[in-house]
Inverse folding.
């Protein structure tokens, strides 16, 4: 895959989340960036307005990433066009040490001329993801 600026930003974002590097992750975003994950009304964003600016995005991290033990990304395909990339894949959340849930979806990142993320929009369905909840044996 090409080293498209939006694809690179998405890869850096996923890597920072995987490593739980909140400050590094926040630094990838432009000051006026917006995160919609998932797009539309959700328990994270009941009014479907998105999480705006670094403070809003930091709060989003605290409501989502911080409550998990880990997040794994399995990006199966990626399409870069213009200043955006659409990644198709599955994000697996682990909580409680051994309870997992898969969010299959399309994850769209848009960057500015400097390569900073100005928009992250995640299209996935909570009801669909809830059907994947499972407990794995602890090692």
């Amino acid at each position: 895959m090409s080293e498209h600026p939006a694809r690179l930003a998405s890869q850096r974002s996923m890597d920072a989340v995987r490593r739980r590097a909140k400050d590094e992750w926040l630094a990838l975003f432009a000051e006026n960036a917006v995160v919609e994950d998932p797009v539309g009304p959700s328990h994270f964003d009941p009014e479907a307005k998105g999480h705006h600016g670094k403070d809003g995005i930091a709060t989003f991290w605290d409501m989502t990433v911080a409550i998990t033990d880990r997040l794994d990304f399995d990006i199966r395909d990626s399409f870069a066009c213009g200043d955006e990339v659409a990644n198709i894949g599955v994000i697996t959340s682990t909580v409680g040490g051994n309870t997992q849930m898969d969010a299959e979806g399309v994850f769209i990142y848009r960057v500015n001329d400097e390569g900073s993320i100005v928009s992250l929009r995640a299209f996935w369905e909570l009801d669909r993801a809830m059907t994947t909840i499972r407990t794995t044996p602890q090692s």
User: Anything to note?
Assistant: The CA atoms of residues 70 and 94 lie 5 Å apart.
